[in-house]
Design brief:
Layout (H helix, E strand, L loop, with lengths): L1 H21 L6 H25 L1 H21 L5 H24 L3 H17 L4
Helix pairs in contact: 1-3, 2-3, 2-4, 4-5
Length: 128
């Protein structure tokens, strides 16, 4: 439970910081919104993968995914919502493909790339 509370608090703090940055200019949030959407998609794919192979881990992963969703909402103007959803779905499909190849085919390259992408997202929110 303590990790869940930390993730939520971190998500809210980062969202507040980013929202402040967003208010300085409308174009400033787009790169952040895209990164957060990509990470939310990647973590969504990981949650679904973990449901199949490691159910307990999926709960913590879902909290991280939810933190990214909150950050998307904090930095995105309403007219960017459709685009953010598009980015999120694209990233989810790509991550799911990597996870599938890594798990079913034992593809070490896919496993490494999947881990790199997820680590880049974790680094965004200080999880290492």
């Amino acid at each position: 439970m303590r990790n869940a509370q930390m993730v939520r608090a971190l998500g809210k703090s980062l969202a507040a910081f980013i929202l402040g940055s967003y208010l300085t200019g409308p174009g400033a949030a787009d790169p952040l919104a895209r990164e957060f959407a990509l990470c939310a998609g990647r973590y969504s794919a990981l949650v679904e993968h973990q449901w199949l192979v490691d159910g307990l881990a999926s709960e913590a992963t879902a909290l991280t995914r939810d933190a990214f969703v909150q950050m998307i909402e904090a930095v995105s103007p309403p007219d960017l919502a459709r685009k953010a959803l598009h980015w999120r779905i694209e990233a989810k499909v790509a991550q799911a493909a990597l996870l599938s190849r890594a798990w079913t085919a034992g593809d070490a390259v896919a496993a490494e790339r999947s881990a790199q992408l997820l680590q880049a997202c974790a680094d965004l929110i200080g999880q290492s």
